[in-house]
Amino acid sequence: MKIFETTHLLVRQFTAADADSFFLINGNEQVMRYIRPAKSREDSDAFLEENIRLYAANPGAGRWAVAEKSNGQVIGMFSLLPVQGGAGKLHIGYALLPAYWGKGYATTLLEAGCAHFFGSHPRTTLYAITRQENVASEKVLLKCGFRFSELFAEHERLWKKEPVFY
């Protein structure tokens, strides 16, 4: 199921057929460096099943595949997830395979993801969480209109964005 798209990217739900791509992302230590520990293949497969089940339980939230429209190749994932302990707050996130870093995809995903969020959710604030040392992601967040809100947890910053014209 398509969530949203950009000129070059399609964001859609993961399916069981995406197990190899899901593992390439979640098993990659470079990609997961600032997110969580990289997963083994077995743990990644279980995590994929869990994510697929969550689509029905949490409409409008989840971890989704990011694919190039030209060839359907999954190059990363995009997410809208509850902030732990955040009383109904959602945070936006992304992870891209290293071959796709530095190509503007992160900015494109966040801009389109924000438009999707503000166009389809009743909430008026969207959050993002970064580790303090993840300077590249903080630059993307600032470029996309997010503002630092608070130190969220040990080594993590909470950012927020409110709608402008969506």
TrEMBL record:
It comes from Chitinophaga japonensis (Flexibacter japonensis). GO terms for molecular function: acyltransferase activity, transferring groups other than amino-acyl groups. InterPro entries: Acyl_CoA_acyltransferase, GNAT_dom, N-acetyltransferase. Gene3D superfamilies: 3.40.630.30. Keywords: Transferase. This is Ribosomal-protein-alanine N-acetyltransferase. It comes from the Bacteria. The keyword NAD does not apply. Residues 9-163 form the N-acetyltransferase domain.
